[in-house]
Design goal:
Oligomer: heterodimer
Structural class of chain A: mainly alpha
Structural class of chain B: alpha+beta
Strand content of chain B: 15-25%
Number of strands of chain A: 2
Strand content of chain A: under 5%
Low-confidence stretches of chain A: none
Distance between the termini of chain A: 30 Å
Strand order of the largest sheet of chain B: 1-2-3-4-5
Order of helices and strands of chain A: HHHHHHHEEH
Shape of chain A: globular
Low-confidence stretches of chain B: 203-207
Distance between the termini of chain B: 79 Å
Number of helices of chain A: 8
Largest interface: A-B, 31 and 30 residues
Order of helices and strands of chain B: HHEEEEEHEEH
């Protein structure tokens, strides 16, 4: 590939992951964790960082081994690789950030079964060189992260009157009757539905125009 | 070689062994730290629940130092509670408590002054309640309610009333939107206090 082509491939991967093929509102993958961890912004940030780490490195590792892994056991190998990185994150949190580790509870471990990770390893890592697989993983995870952060921001502000634990003017005052439901599971469904709706509408509009 | 029947099995073994050994090594290296963190979380809860030792503003090293120097381990005379002694006299007891919360076990410590009546504080070192709702039990706004409460004699040393209700000397407000966590926590606290009282052989035993 010429440098020109590589650059456009990279740009394409970035755009696909962040926008055109966004895991949350286009592929609708990994919804389980979206619902679970988005009631506080701080938890969401750490969860997203964990996902970027896991997804980028798993996809790359799957890609490195793709020439050797027999096809019929590739899912087993992929799960093993994903679990490997997730456990590393989990142990790191337990050792160096015990407070966050208790906050996230079982959800870090559940990244193993997050459909995005397996999905990207299967769809991309399995058939592309390590460098671009890493990039694809990282930007899919970032695409996931920014949507989650939007959801978390609304949920925390409306439900608790805070942003990442800091009081937000007006929303933290008695004038704002906190929407407790926003920090409970139903709030996640509402927010996710609204966010997917908005982003898809924007997407459709953009695709229609040039034609 | 790749066409051989045993290849996938052998491959899986090699890959598993490789990744597992890295994880095992990694977990070994951090194990000491993880255990220290757990122990420290407990010590911090004890120190926070007891009076005059400080609380959230203490560094880890200070927490550990105060715990070692001023808190004595449970023995029969303290009814299985940790005790804060000053000049040989017990100033307060830290009664450990634990039980099932809404999602996962809750464990903490409640501090009671030497009169066995006045609550000096409460702190938790393990819980996994809903962030923003049940998990509010760990926030000062909820915990500070307990300071200075007088334990009622009888079955319910501490009574949790619904938010907004009028409070008596042994009542605190439950957490809004977290009825399950609150009722379970109430049970955990009261069970721990009742069993501690009966071990202490004090008044206020259930009739």
């Amino acid at each position: 590939m010429s440098p020109m082509q590589t650059e456009s491939t990279q740009r394409k991967i970035i755009m696909e992951g962040l926008w055109r093929n966004n895991p949350i509102f286009k592929q609708v993958l990994g919804i389980c964790s979206t619902l679970a961890v988005t009631n506080l912004v701080m938890n969401t940030i750490v969860m997203c960082a964990a996902l970027v780490f896991t997804l980028a490195l798993s996809s790359m590792t799957v890609s490195i081994l793709r020439g050797y892994t027999p096809r019929n056991i590739r899912m087993m190998v992929e799960t093993l690789i994903i679990a490997f990185y997730v456990i590393i994150v989990d142990v790191l949190l337990k050792a160096y950030w015990p407070q966050m580790s208790t906050n996230l509870g079982p959800y870090v471990g559940l990244i193993i079964t997050n459909c995005i990770v397996m999905g990207r390893c299967e769809a991309y890592g399995n058939s592309n060189p390590p460098g671009v697989a890493f990039l694809d993983g990282a930007f899919n995870a970032l695409g996931y992260s920014f949507v989650l952060l939007i959801i978390a921001t609304f949920r925390e502000i409306l439900g608790m009157g805070t942003f990442a634990g800091l009081a937000v003017p007006y929303f933290s005052s008695p004038a704002w009757d906190k929407w407790i439901i926003m920090v409970m599971p139903p709030g996640a469904f509402f927010m996710l539905g609204i966010v997917v709706w908005i982003f898809r509408s924007i997407q459709v509009e953009k695709e229609d125009k040039p034609k | 070689m790749r066409e051989k029947k045993w290849f996938p099995i052998g491959y899986m073994f090699v890959v598993s062994a490789f990744f597992s050994s890295i994880i095992i090594a990694f977990a070994r290296v951090t194990q000491v730290r993880v255990e220290a963190n757990e122990k420290l979380a407990f010590e911090r809860a004890v120190v926070t629940a007891l009076p005059e030792l400080g609380g959230a503003e203490l560094t880890n090293a200070q927490v550990h130092q105060r715990f070692i120097e001023q808190v004595s381990e449970p023995d029969p005379s303290s009814g299985g509670a940790y005790a804060l002694k000053q000049g040989g006299q017990v100033v307060a007891y830290a009664v450990p408590m634990s039980g099932q919360g809404f999602w996962a076990p809750i464990a903490g410590v409640i501090g009671v002054a030497a009169d066995k009546q006045t609550v000096t504080g409460i702190a938790f070192y393990q819980q996994n309640e809903t962030p923003g709702l049940g998990a509010e039990i760990t926030k000062p706004a909820f915990r500070n309610q307990f300071k200075g409460k007088q334990l009622a004699s009888g079955d319910k040393p501490i009574d949790m009333k619904r938010p907004g209700a009028e409070l008596g000397a042994s009542d605190v407000h439950a957490v809004t939107g977290a009825t399950q966590t609150s009722t379970r926590l109430e049970r955990i606290i009261n069970e721990a206090l009742r069993s501690w009282r009966s071990k202490m052989g004090q008044e206020g035993q259930p009739s």
